[in-house]
Amino acid sequence: WTCPHVSGVLPHPRAGMTLTALGGRLFLFGGSGTSSKCFHDLQILDRKEMAWLDVMHSDSDQQWDNKASNGTNNAIARNNTSSGYYDEMIHDEDYHRTSAQSGHDGGNMGSLGLQDSMDAQTSTLSTSRAGGGWMSSSADMASPNPNDEDTIPTIFVNGQGPGRRAGHTATAVNRHIYVFGGSCGSDYLNDFFVLDTDPPPRAYVNKPTSLQLFERRLRLLYNEEEFSDVTFLVEGQKVYGHKMVLSLVSDCFRAMFTTGFRESEVGAEIEIPLCSHDAFCSMMEYIYTGQTPKCCNVQLLDTNQQAAISGIGRVVDLLELADRFFLDHLKQVCERILEPAVSAETVDYLHQVAHKTNSIQLEAVCAHFERNLDT
Q1: Which runs of E-coded beta strand occur in the chain?
Q2: Statement: the pTM of the whole predicted model exceeds 0.70
Q3: Where are the domains of the chain?
Q4: What is the pLDDT of residues 295-335, one digit of tens each?
Q5: In this protein, which residues make up the domain named BTB (predicted)?
């Protein structure tokens, strides 16, 4: 007789369990402890490493296949899996691994709610397993730091397994383990479960779509000379653009780049008159990112009158560009920003701006303010 050193967290002391050998591992299930209550946990010993593996459960898939008979004892089996003994187990000092790894609020095996952990792991595994069996780790799941002591792989168990029991049978056939019967207290069970220890891998779709990549990378092309095929001159400064991008969002740009116009020539520099460089760059940034331009993040009701007038002026410049280049959404954004700026001092000016830029919403706000000015 020898007593080998076994690493990992030891299972809780018990009797009446099953220990099934399969594929270089020993699968321990069930049994009864010192309190005469039954367990329903699954523990796995790696015979080569002589280590108890970390086992996590998730009920997202049916790793356990329930073949329960249609007898009266079926209700007993289900009731046995929902009582409160698990609460006693998680407070036992020798059973701290199960309590630390689970968010268990009942008695069913495989209902520990660790799907988020599984999803995080599956993206790093080329042979991740799910859909009816183990999700087992490999060397890829070990810590990247070779100095880390914890190199025990983690086993992910899917599905709802057998309830607490002892004295049952567990038989290994090929890659499956068949569990039948047993008892828990005075209840004798006749349910039947099958554990698939090597389920087929599942194909996942977790990479970004072409549209997601386009949206993510488009913002990087803002005012970027690389790949640009059109250059704008605004107040003597160059602003780089891409005809395809600009034509997709603006019919004005599309017409500008149509064959027959001077602006359609390759490498042409297009001068944009009657426009500030800051306003034009804000519009271009909006086109490439879809975000509200920074110049719109101003306090138009500032107690400093000069600052308020300056802020209104920047938004008006952008509103005029949005109308000029047929950017309706940006135009509405500017209208909404200018709405609270309508006052007795600004209503005439903003009403003129609204009429000039065909800003129907802003014009309606100004008209309403004027109608109710004396009331």
Answers
A1: 18-22, 25-29, 42-46, 51-52, 54-58, 64-66, 134-136, 154-158, 169-173, 176-180, 183-184, 187-188, 192-196, 230-234, 237-241, 269-271
A2: no
A3: 18-196, 207-291, 294-375
A4: 776 665 555 667 677 889 999 999 999 999 999 999 999 99
A5: 228-291
